[in-house]
Protein backbone atom coordinates (compact mmCIF):
# COMPACT_ATOMS: atom_id res chain seq x y z
CA UNK A 1 0.00 0.00 0.00
CA UNK A 2 2.83 2.40 0.88
CA UNK A 3 4.41 1.62 -2.50
CA UNK A 4 1.19 2.45 -4.37
CA UNK A 5 0.73 5.70 -2.47
CA UNK A 6 4.35 6.62 -3.08
CA UNK A 7 4.26 5.84 -6.79
CA UNK A 8 1.14 7.95 -7.21
CA UNK A 9 2.82 10.91 -5.50
CA UNK A 10 0.84 10.73 -2.27
CA UNK A 11 4.00 10.73 -0.21
CA UNK A 12 2.67 12.30 2.97
CA UNK A 13 -0.10 9.70 3.07
CA UNK A 14 2.45 6.95 2.46
CA UNK A 15 4.70 8.24 5.25
CA UNK A 16 1.73 8.48 7.63
CA UNK A 17 0.73 4.92 6.75
CA UNK A 18 4.23 3.58 7.41
CA UNK A 19 4.48 5.52 10.69
CA UNK A 20 1.14 4.08 11.86
CA UNK A 21 2.00 0.45 11.09
CA UNK A 22 1.50 -1.83 14.12
CA UNK A 23 4.89 -3.44 13.47
CA UNK A 24 8.20 -1.67 13.07
CA UNK A 25 8.79 -1.07 9.33
CA UNK A 26 11.99 -2.58 7.96
CA UNK A 27 14.52 -1.07 5.58
CA UNK A 28 12.64 -2.40 2.56
CA UNK A 29 9.52 -0.43 3.41
CA UNK A 30 11.50 2.74 4.09
CA UNK A 31 13.58 2.18 0.95
CA UNK A 32 10.46 1.93 -1.19
CA UNK A 33 9.18 5.20 0.19
CA UNK A 34 12.60 6.81 -0.18
CA UNK A 35 12.71 5.90 -3.87
CA UNK A 36 9.27 7.44 -4.37
CA UNK A 37 10.48 10.64 -2.69
CA UNK A 38 13.41 10.76 -5.10
CA UNK A 39 11.17 10.20 -8.14
CA UNK A 40 8.71 12.92 -7.07
CA UNK A 41 11.46 15.29 -5.85
CA UNK A 42 9.98 15.45 -2.34
CA UNK A 43 13.19 16.37 -0.58
CA UNK A 44 11.83 17.30 2.86
CA UNK A 45 9.91 14.03 3.26
CA UNK A 46 12.81 12.17 1.66
CA UNK A 47 15.26 13.37 4.29
CA UNK A 48 13.00 12.20 7.12
CA UNK A 49 12.44 8.87 5.39
CA UNK A 50 16.17 8.40 4.67
CA UNK A 51 16.96 8.85 8.36
CA UNK A 52 14.39 6.19 9.26
CA UNK A 53 15.74 3.88 6.54
CA UNK A 54 19.30 4.25 7.87
CA UNK A 55 18.09 3.63 11.41
CA UNK A 56 16.31 0.43 10.36
CA UNK A 57 19.08 -0.87 8.04
CA UNK A 58 22.38 0.89 8.87
CA UNK A 59 24.44 -1.36 6.57
CA UNK A 60 22.65 -0.32 3.35
CA UNK A 61 24.94 2.13 1.55
CA UNK A 62 22.19 3.27 -0.81
CA UNK A 63 20.28 5.06 1.94
CA UNK A 64 23.32 7.17 2.88
CA UNK A 65 23.98 8.04 -0.76
CA UNK A 66 20.37 9.05 -1.39
CA UNK A 67 20.37 11.16 1.79
CA UNK A 68 23.60 12.85 0.71
CA UNK A 69 22.21 13.51 -2.76
CA UNK A 70 19.02 15.00 -1.35
CA UNK A 71 20.97 17.38 0.85
CA UNK A 72 23.14 18.28 -2.14
CA UNK A 73 20.11 19.06 -4.28
CA UNK A 74 19.06 21.58 -1.62
CA UNK A 75 22.53 23.14 -1.52
CA UNK A 76 23.15 21.81 1.99
CA UNK A 77 26.68 20.66 1.28
CA UNK A 78 27.76 20.33 4.92
CA UNK A 79 24.91 17.92 5.61
CA UNK A 80 25.63 16.04 2.37
CA UNK A 81 29.25 15.60 3.44
CA UNK A 82 28.13 14.54 6.93
CA UNK A 83 26.06 11.70 5.43
CA UNK A 84 29.14 10.48 3.52
CA UNK A 85 31.30 10.81 6.65
CA UNK A 86 28.77 8.78 8.61
CA UNK A 87 29.25 5.97 6.09
CA UNK A 88 33.01 6.07 6.63
CA UNK A 89 32.64 6.15 10.42
CA UNK A 90 30.48 3.05 10.28
CA UNK A 91 32.80 1.27 7.86
CA UNK A 92 30.27 1.23 5.05
CA UNK A 93 31.66 1.61 1.55
CA UNK A 94 29.80 2.59 -1.57
CA UNK A 95 29.53 -0.40 -3.84
CA UNK A 96 30.83 0.15 -7.33
CA UNK A 97 28.22 0.08 -10.05
CA UNK A 98 28.45 -2.51 -12.82
CA UNK A 99 26.42 -3.95 -15.62
CA UNK A 100 26.46 -7.08 -17.71
CA UNK A 101 26.38 -6.72 -21.47
From TrEMBL:
The keyword Cytoplasm does not apply. It comes from the Eukaryota. SUPFAM superfamilies: TPR-like. It holds the Pfam family E_motif. The keyword Repeat applies. One of its GO terms (biological process) is RNA modification. GO terms for molecular function: RNA binding. Gene3D superfamilies: Tetratricopeptide repeat domain. This is Pentacotripeptide-repeat region of PRORP domain-containing protein. It comes from Populus davidiana.
